[in-house]
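Long-time lurker. I teach an intro course on protein structure, and each term I like to show students one example going from raw sequence to a predicted 3D structure in token notation. This year I'd like something fresh instead of my usual example. Would anyone be willing to generate the tokens for the chain below so I can use it in lecture? Attribution to the forum is fine with me.
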Amino acid sequence: MVTCKAAIFNNAQWPEFAPYGVTQPVSGACVLGFIATDPDVPPTRNCTVDGTSANYALEVSNPCIRTTLGGRGLPTWFELT
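-- Reply from a regular --
Happy to contribute to a lecture. Here you go:
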């Protein structure tokens, strides 16, 4: 079976995925210390089929961003006053 291999890429964990002959979007999960740009939507990238092989695309939609500011445990969107 042709699959995109599980891997950590762009601060997200991507599962092994079998696209069954058609390029398909796959949801990932941000690694510890990171959150999706839109927290309500997981990061996604295509698992692309090319003949007898499948590979994840390099482009990630809704990428994961760091959740801390200067190691102080503050979210990046937290404004210091």
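Some talking points for your students: The mean pLDDT is 88. The chain is about 0% helix and 35% strand.
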